[in-house]
Protein 1
Amino acid sequence: MRKFLPAIALTLFAAIGIAVAQTPLPSVPWGPFVFPVPPGLALHVSNNTALRGVSTASLTGILIRDGVTTAGDAPPLAYKASGSACTLNAGVGDSGSQVASLDNKCWLAVFPSSGVDITQFGAKGDNLTDNTTAYLAAVAAADVNQVSKVVIPAGKFKFSTAATYTIPTALHCITIQGQGQDLTELTWPNATDGLIFNYLDTSNCVRIRDMTISTASVAGGDGVTLTMANGAGCGATPCAFGAQSDFINVAFRDAAGYSLGGTKYWANAINVQGVQYINFDNLYVQGPWTTGAHVSLGTGVLLNGGTASIIPVVYNFKGCNFNAVGVGIAIDAFVQGVTVLSSNFVGGQYGVKVLATGTAVNEINVTGSQFNVGLGGVFAVAGAAITNLTSTNSLYLVPNGAFGIDVHGVIQTSIIGNQLIGIDAGFTGGGINIQNTSSKGLITQNLLSALTSGIILDTLVTDFVVKDNHYTSVTTKTDNNGAANVNSVERSTPILGWSWTPTDGSGAGLVFTGASGLANLANNDTFGSFLLTYPVTVNGADAKIASFPTAVINTPVGLSPSVCYITNAVSPPVLVVPISNTTTATLFNFSTGAPYTNAALSTFSLACSFRYST
């Protein structure tokens, strides 16, 4: 008769809501007997209500729940019986990892290695259900069960408040895995932060992948916040190790979608507070896009500053897009090792911005990226201090009133092989503006086009080399105001035989006859000759010649006096002495060293040469 007991047991299981399915599981006890389940068969319950109706005393081994509220509303999940009550929520459990049994014990979930699915805790992607509790329960369960991955399926999952998770142990990481941008969407309809992760130390990490994180509020808090515990870090020497966090294929935007004229945005899509070693790969941040305007609202990624004793390092951006965001990437004090590769910044005010509080910032590298922003592609506010700034092979489309690269207080700068192009009619702005106490820089092989100013070096800028750049339709190619720059202004391609016409620069309004000139521009030098004849005049102003073809360098170095000969009278030679930062030269008496007056040169014909640095 024993061989008939399995059939009797299966009939009894059906009577209490336990079904049988094709899954290989161990033998099942019933009462005083243990009945082996035939190979390929398993015991199933439809939902949590049915699971709570089963006593752990009736089954040892595995039971499968087919849904949370109804069968099929979540992936099937295996459970095993516990000999004690549930530890969560006063013995009730969390409806996912722990479910109370009929005999006041607990059914414990056995999660697959592929991760913990939040729908197994009652989450629904219907944009109606509040999923905050289910999400936090899933994250906690992933940690306790050492799965370390939370899976969020396709759907729009609403959250009513910020979801904060503190990583409980060192040497622990958590992955939040969606199914793709806009397939999986986490949305916050209220003005609140989104996901918050608190790190214990540098051994923790968070990996967020393949989803959209949206807000229905104006400046709706921070989309994701990563916070390092106070005092945790590597000290004054940057960390040589650390667990790596990442954001891969993640979008931040208005909950209404991508439509033009949307008004909702995150204050900071990602707020990083002391956490380091983060990769941002194919990150997308959308702000409140407005036609024909560069918006000043919101920040894509805020890298908050460290201290002299805690230095956050290594932030890699690859293939990221920041659209209509006030600041794409904001960098604060002591941050080191920011690399931006093949990324786009469009429609905001700043691309990569070092804040006014950004002292001791080190190693910013921008390569192969594109900028079309309102004020500065790479921008450092007055008060910032940067060491090692590099921009290579990037495109800066510069609107009215902006600069492509505009930085203060930078030491050791390389700006090589970029294109900086003015894009507005009647353009007023420039390509590269180096300000404040910047030093030790190389600006070379850049293409600058349709700009008012190509390259500006401030008065306190020292030891910069500017060479081999190409200028097209640039009003002032290089404005060098620093007194200690090496080869600071140049012409990338020599220009020979440039015709120009000398004019009166004394203010007397004299009109020369036979005035003509030729100039040659090579490297940092302008040199050539001119001819002219003074009119009859008794004007006593110092004689000056204007309209030289290029501006004179703003430093005594390179102001070489040149000689003029008077061809129609016997008189001492004339010295042509350029005036710094102008296109004018004064004519001096070679013998006395005093300036000639206009009257002293009345009716004289001059044949002059000149040479000066530009």
Protein 2
Amino acid sequence: MRKKRSNKNRMFKLILAEKPSQARDIAIAIDDNYKTQRGYILAGDYIVTWAIGHLVELYEPEDYDFRYKRWRLNDLPIIPDEFLYKVKEEKQFRVIARLLTRKDVEAVIIATDPGREGELIARLILREAGWNWEERPTYRFWTSKALTPSAVREALENLRPVTEFDRLYLSALMRQWADWIVGINASRGYTLIFGRGGKKEVYSVGRVQTPTLKLIVDRELEIKNFKPVDYWLIKATFSKGSESYVGTYFCIKEDGKEDSKIYDEDLAKRILDEVRDKKGVVEKIERKLKRLAPPKLFSLTTLQQVANKKYGFSASKTLDIAQSLYEKKYITYPRTESVVLHEDQLDEIREILRRLGARYSEVEGIGDVGSAGKRVFDSRKLTDHHAIIPTGKLSSFDRLSEAEKKLLDLIIRRFIAVFYDHYEYESIRVITKVGEYRFLSLGRIVRNPGWLSVYDFGIDGDNEEGEREPLPYLDEGDSVDVTRLKMEKKQTEPPKRYTEATLIDAMVNAWRFTEDENLKKILKECDGIGTPATRSSIIETLIKRNYVVRKRKDLIPTDKAVFLVDKVRDEKIADIAWTAVWEKKLEDIAKGRCRDARDFLKDITSYVYDLVSRLREYGERER
């Protein structure tokens, strides 16, 4: 506990956290004898206060001019000359505003969530309250670690000038303004033109939500229009002495690839007749030693994908659980895109592993942590935050909810697994020839289970690629008997519906959805559409607005969604690739790679003018 000064001429630094719980964590680290006031906490030489999420929000169109309360096509596009804001939560905002005017407050420390949205929340509050960070001392509290007392004190000792984050704030502003311009004008335009019924159904359109919706609708249309084709597989059981193995008929296609499907039933029957009760010969045996590296540490995106595959958690549920675990100090900051750690974290990681060893015996199988090298420790590949890792806290583990235990266990096991050896196995391919026909058998012998020994369910719930058919010892040239034949009739299957795991993967890998090689190259350099922190809310928004329904893990579009996508299909606003390009421009603004951030907004505004013009023309033609 710090020594208390005389109140005479005493000056304070004001810390602005994002939530009351985070404010308390910071206050405890400063002075465990802190005093709680209405809307803030006194802790030593600090006053700690908090936002409650977005205390300040953008004007609605009718706040600029009441006539916009009624939706009219002739009023579009609505583009404010200057974007204005209003206070959403008056009570807490007044507390913060009063604190900022106190004469004994000498500086402000922004301690909202360390990311784009957190920066925006704090800056808008300060701006509306009249605090000029360009002229008055203002600093940024920035850490990826859980807000333990030691992490808080470390961050307070390493405060950074707020100007270092001006570009991040500018990127957040441009994102917010662009989403307003697109969302307000496109939603009103499409609703006015295409809204059905006496009370028009509202068609919400957004810069990220609409291309995401198009992915889901297009997949559903693929499934609906899919025409299944019959094919047959032939499986033969071969015996050598008392041992046997199974092989599947295959042929080599014109493109050189192996194919086991037979699309002609008569041909399948002929092959069956020609190999029945015949002898075969082991024509070829291929043995390869393969090594599978441990998986990478979790980013929020990969954590959401694995939690959806293994436990059926929605992306939103995974984020909520991760945020809860972070606030309870079990894991580090969850809203991260990184899958690596700082190179100077070696000692910290060893200590975390030591603490985890009390519950996880798998820790004993770890050798030298440093041998993981750049695969785990690579400062050059870090974004604002390192990968999600456990803090080593295990106390009160049994008091966590079942969902929290499951997610924490995923994170801990992934963390332990990255420091294990590679999984090594011998892959065996056996080709058995019967007359002119060939049959393929696949086998596997595990040489070193490596990191897979940390799990009891394969790779985070998925079995690794390849079959595990047990094979007897064979030599090339061995003679074998065909003892059993089986012809299976099957049908080609349509693509699977998106789950949240596969949809997030599509959002991240937007480059897959364009044939333009130059655009594909650009998109591979960015992280697709949305951000790790917003993708889950986009999916929830689509469900809330009656565009998508969940059925078990599947995401299924409604008739409303199919109708809208049909109308918006050819627009950039529905093109995932173009939306990803816009997202990359926002990233360029945040990284200082953009000369004039407002060029991005001009592009968005110009597009919206063109969109509204096309909607008007369509409306006039349909009269």
Protein 3
Amino acid sequence: MLLVSHANLFGQTKIKDLLEKGYAQVEASEFRAALETANSIIFKDPDNFHGYGLKGVAEVRLGMLKEGMTNLTYAMNNGVKNAFVYAHRGVVYQSQEEMQKAESEFNRAIAIDDKSYRIYTLRGLFFIINLEYDKALKDFDKVVSLASNDPKSYFFRGHAHYLLDNYDEAILDEKKALKLGSKSPGSVFEVLSNCALAQNRLEDAEDYLNQMLMYDSKNGSAWSELGHIQLAKGDTSNAIRSFEKAIDIDPENELSYLWYIKYCSDQGLNQEVIELTTAALDGRTSLDHKFLGIRAGSHMEMAHFELAIVDFTQAILRKSNEPLYYINRGLCWYRTGKVNSGRKDFQSALRHCNNDPEIRRQVADAYFLAGDLANSKQLLIQLQEKGSEDPMIFSRLANIAFQTQDYENAVQLFDQAILKGAQDSIFSYCFRGHAKYELGLHDEANLDLDTLLSLEPEKTMFPEVAGILCNLGYLLDELERFEEAKEALDKGIALDSTIAYAYNNRGFARYKLGDFEGAILDFNKSIELKNDYFYWPPYNRANALKALKRYDEAIEDFNLAISYKADYAEAYNDRGETWELLGKRKLARADFEKALELNPELESARSNVARTKK
């Protein structure tokens, strides 16, 4: 018996050494070796439940969660009170999103061993996943106190500080991790970059990301983030290279595509957007609808409405409860003349909006854009009747009143929109001023335009600011404020160089300011862009040519204006004056008489007829 007892004692001592070796292997992240050690213990002593505990810990760390939980539970049920066993049961519960059970296991582990910084680390990481950053920070404070020479301690605490917006503290901890020789410097530089970005230090953020990529050049997300920062700095050429690198490394990184697509979309590069979204769709499932929606939007921008309808339809098949897809497809139906299909889509959007007033207002906006003012007005009034105080509703109703030339009602509704603080106040001041001008209230109109100018609309992010500046220029022209008109139109054209009438109106302001050559250039551009009122630019250009004594060219333009608008009394009158300057009095008199016939109220024509009778 004595010999047997000595043998058992020797065996138990050896197994104890193996257990210590196994847990040392776990701490050194040598999980496969730890699993082999646990198997060796169990082979030598099948009744050693600590061996099962070690085996469960190693299996959990190797991702074998089901097998690990079985062995951990077996060890625990057989009296093993090991902090690592309970902590790793917590890890398994955490992976199963059973957060209360996970926290309970972590707490039991710490109650057994409150000196293990690794267990505090596991619980701290659990708190981060559970969005309890204050608790995580307390645990990582404890980790630092227990392992002040371990760079991971500072890395994790720095991350917690970052998540709590304590950027300066986070930076100190991450730099400490680097100083102590972090084995994961790429991760440290990522946190430093995030802190710098949060503090709007773009140069530092870019520098940290570049250092991160020195250690992890195949990190597609980092390249994508670098591109985002470079875009914010205005470094578009490098940003594009970074996005392309991100996509090359990870063709399934949605964020890379989305940022690259956003850049192309902001630049109006719709064909590039279509190509990128097509590439992004290759092999995707979860976000297919989003990329289809983006591609459809670019087709809309390019007026390829049939193609947009195809993509929106595919997006709807993948996500049938997204009201914005129905709204935009409805607009496309309207643009292709299929009004009933458009209305059906708008109704579908309303069915899927869960009575969200913002979506209902967007449907009203869609009706407005489609030219269906009656349905737009009806929806907006319904929102008012349901008690909505959204100032944008008053603004939209005011716009409808303005479009239907109900200027008095428009003024009253714009009054309410401004009073309630509508976000588009620059729009409200512009068109309230316009409505007052149409009502003959020129002094009041001037006051609204003065307020609008003081708001510096060109510095706002309002999406229709270019159109507002151009409309402002038109009104200032009409009110004979030509210097201000030209300035407003300069700004509007700088934001959108495709608005044809803006060039005509700026040309008119230049003409009135004596810049006839500049005026002619603007009238040329307006004609090139096909102004909706075809007769205005050639008529105005004719008068500029006339002022430069280029009479034959002026006659050609007056002829062109009259060919577009046969009852254009002013064009006949001004052509008559040009004939007169060329010494062709009979032609001049005929034009003056035609002008007076077309418009008996045209005083200049009456005066010219009376003068040429003598």
